[in-house]
């Protein structure tokens, strides 16, 4: 089997000796099946080449001096320079101010003015919190006691501005001072 393949390869080489290979590539439908698989030594690529077929005619090319020159490129016009920047005009315009709410309606004559609750506060932006930002100089407040058992708040002051009297304080028991000791007796003085 090996000798048969080597002999077939030598026959193909003998058939292709002196045949000038053309570098024209053909599409597979144009090449016959027997020629599209032949390889010719010296050709870097597997082109459509068959020694038994007529070499395909190359399309006629005009000589170099008859090739029309390419059209000249269009003239280049640089873009106009941007207008000069005016001072303070390079920033985007500020958003329009918010429209104020409409004023409350006037009270009717002979009737007390109606109560209109204030508008709700705007919602907090994401990442914001209502309290002041934490400071690295002051420790954070202690956490609340568990189960929400907060100490009772102090009673509010009365509306007239006077505070109630303080609650009576428990008096501490102070024992009375001991009686003074008796004077020392003078044994040299006669007792009456």
UniProtKB/TrEMBL annotation:
Q: Which UniProt keywords apply?
A: Signal
The reply on keyword Signal is: yes
Where do the record's region annotations for Disordered lie? 59-192
Give the signal peptide, or none: 1-21
The organism's superkingdom is given as Eukaryota
This chain belongs to the protein called Uncharacterized protein
């Amino acid at each position: 089997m090996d000798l048969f393949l080597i002999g077939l390869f030598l026959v193909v080489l003998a058939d292709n000796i002196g045949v000038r290979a053309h570098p024209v590539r053909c599409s597979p439908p144009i090449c016959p099946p027997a020629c599209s698989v032949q390889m010719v030594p010296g050709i870097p690529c597997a082109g459509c080449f068959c020694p038994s077929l007529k070499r395909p005619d190359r399309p006629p090319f005009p000589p170099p001096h008859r090739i029309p020159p390419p059209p000249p490129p269009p003239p280049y016009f640089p873009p106009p320079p941007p207008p000069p920047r005016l001072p303070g005009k390079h920033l985007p315009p500020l958003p329009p101010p918010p429209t104020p709410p409409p004023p409350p309606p006037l009270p009717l004559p002979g009737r007390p003015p109606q109560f209109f609750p204030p508008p709700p506060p705007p919602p907090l932006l994401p990442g914001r919190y209502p309290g002041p930002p934490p400071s690295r100089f002051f420790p954070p407040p202690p956490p609340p006691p568990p189960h929400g058992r907060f100490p009772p708040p102090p009673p509010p002051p009365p509306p007239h501005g006077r505070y109630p009297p303080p609650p009576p304080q428990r008096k501490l028991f102070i024992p009375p001072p001991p009686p003074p000791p008796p004077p020392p007796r003078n044994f040299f003085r006669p007792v009456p």
